[in-house]
Specification:
The mean pLDDT is about 95. This protein has a 4-stranded mixed β-sheet. A two-stranded parallel ribbon has the order 1-2. It has 3 domains: about 1-40, no CATH class; about 60-155, Rossmann fold (3-Layer(aba) Sandwich); about 155-220, rRNA adenine dimethylase, C-terminal domain (Helicase, Ruva Protein, domain 3, Orthogonal Bundle), CATH 1.10.8. It has helices at about 1-5, 20-30, 50-55, 75-80, 95-105, 110-120, 155-170, 175-185, 190-195, 210-220, and strands at about 15-20, 35-40, 65-70, 90-95, 120-130, 140-150. By secondary structure, it is α/β, with parallel strands linked by helices. The protein is elongated, with a radius of gyration of 20 Å. The chain contains 10 helices and 6 strands; from the N terminus they run αβαβαβαβααββαααα.
Length: about 220
């Protein structure tokens, strides 16, 4: 609500998706005479965003996403946005501070979500937002991040990378060789040989691999 009011005078066209029915009603009444503002009630995870963007007149790289997203569904929302066929110029999102750190993590602290974010985009933590900035005060601190897409999900190579990554992250305390061996029905010795071929330790864990390492790994599997 507040974000919509702040943005409306700064953009040529605004499409807002809101789940709260009362807030939707208020926004629709406020902007009933506006030709540049559209308010849609619904859950973003249940909406065909490609179709919605086409109907609303947005083409690829012609729009930006700005959102305060529900923290309990942050991961699925970010996965959905990164998978958009029509990529935005950028995504500026308020997320839990710990999630912001995860998304921008370095090798050693990587996760499946941070790999996906950094594989398709650059991720920058813009600024910290203390929990005291909200009323009522929540239990966690927040941060604003900017995700700038580099490419869309559209290739067999991408599917292969994330098939390997899902297997690699399936048990975080196990080595990558153990996880890939059990998930892909390949001998551990064969996996270890491929890791050595890439200059990686045989006891390395998935969270220690860089984005480039995953790209190289898919080439030899």
């Amino acid at each position: 609500g507040i974000l919509t009011f702040r943005l409306v005078d700064r953009v040529e066209k605004l499409l807002a998706i809101e789940l709260d029915h009362q807030l939707v009603t208020r926004l629709q009444e406020q902007f009933v005479d506006s030709k540049s503002v559209s308010i849609l009630e619904g859950n973003i995870l249940d909406i065909d965003l490609k179709e919605l963007l086409e109907i609303s007149g947005f083409s690829e790289h012609s729009y930006k996403i700005i959102a305060n997203i529900p923290y309990y569904i942050t991961a699925p929302i970010i996965r959905t946005l990164l998978s958009l066929t029509y990529q935005p110029v950028s995504m500026t999102l308020m997320v839990q501070d710990a999630v912001a750190d995860r998304l921008s993590a370095d090798p050693g602290d990587m996760s499946l979500l941070s790999l996906m974010a950094q594989y398709y985009a650059t991720v920058e933590k813009k600024f910290f937002v203390p929990k005291e900035a909200f009323d009522p005060v929540p239990k966690v601190n927040s941060a604003v991040i900017q995700i700038t897409p580099r490419r869309a999900y559209d290739s067999e190579e991408d599917r292969k990378v994330f098939r390997l990554a899902r297997a690699g992250f399936s048990a975080r305390r196990k080595t990558l060789a153990n996880n890939l061996s059990s998930s892909l029905s390949v001998s551990k010795e064969e996996v270890e040989a491929k890791l050595v071929q890439l200059g990686l330790r045989v006891d390395i864990r998935a969270q220690a691999l860089s984005v480039a390492d995953w790209g190289n790994l898919q080439k030899i599997f």
